[in-house]
Amino acid sequence: MNQIQQPEDMPRLFVANWNNRRADLLAELFEANADFINVVGLWWENRPAIFKAHAYGLQVIFPNSTLQAGRIKVNQLSEDAAIVHARMQLTGQTAPEGQAGTRHTIFTFVLRRNGTYWLCVSAQNTDIVPGAETYIRTEGGTLRPADYRKK
User: Fold this and answer.
1) Which of 37, 47, 83, 141 is the most buried (most CB within 10 A)?
2) When comparing pLDDT for 130 and 16, which is higher?
3) In the predicted model, is pLDDT for residue 151 greater than 70?
4) How far apart are CA 76 and CA 45, in angstroms?
5) What is the rounded end-to-end Cα distance, in angstroms, of the chain?
6) 128: which residues sit within 8 A by CB, 6+ positions away?
7) In DSSP terms, which residues pair with 76 in a beta bridge?
8) Beta pairing partners, 136
9) Per residue in 77-110, pLDDT tens?
10) SS3 of the chain
11) pLDDT tens, position by position, 17-73
12) What is the mean pLDDT of residues 97-124?
């Protein structure tokens, strides 16, 4: 079943659909006009765009990847609204020059009850960068991690 019965099901279903390369089922977890913002700030503003981006990603960037959910925290805002945070681990990403290393991210899912099940209204994926607290944009325009605590 691909319906979100409880808010904490969202990360688990997202992971299952990702690992099964089912962009169609992944997109079904979202409302028709949902938003999805990826780790570099690309913003998809509806279910067809979310499907298209994930279909491409699962074929080209992540065809051999495995996604795992770790800690999941639910903040129930009301009977019909919830925020879900989930730590994720991604392995097997394809890089232009071969295989990429393991990535760790935190997903934020905003959910709304739709009758007897829930749908995602908005999702954002943020990379965890060990040893960093922000980024600095260099004169050349690239971003580099920075930690002001280490002077």
Assistant:
1) 47
2) 16
3) no
4) 24
5) 52
6) 87, 104, 105, 106
7) 82
8) 144
9) 999 999 999 999 999 999 988 778 999 999 999 9
10) CCCECCCCHHHHHHHHHHHCCCHHHHHCCEEEEEEEECCCCCEECCHHHHHHHHHHHHHHHCCCCEEEEEEEEEEEEECCEEEEEEEEEEECCEECCEECCCEEEEEEEEEEEECCEEEEEEEEEEECCCCCCEEEECCCCCEEEECCCCC
11) 999 999 999 999 999 999 999 999 999 999 999 999 999 999 999 999 999 999 999
12) 95
Neighbours of 33 (CB within 10 A): 9
Question: What is the spatial distance between Cα 53 and Cα 62, in angstroms, rounded to a whole number?
Answer: 12
Q: Would you state the structure tokens that stand for residue 47, as one six-digit string?
A: 């279910």
Q: 116 burial class (0-12, 13-18, 19+ CB within 10 angstroms)?
A: exposed
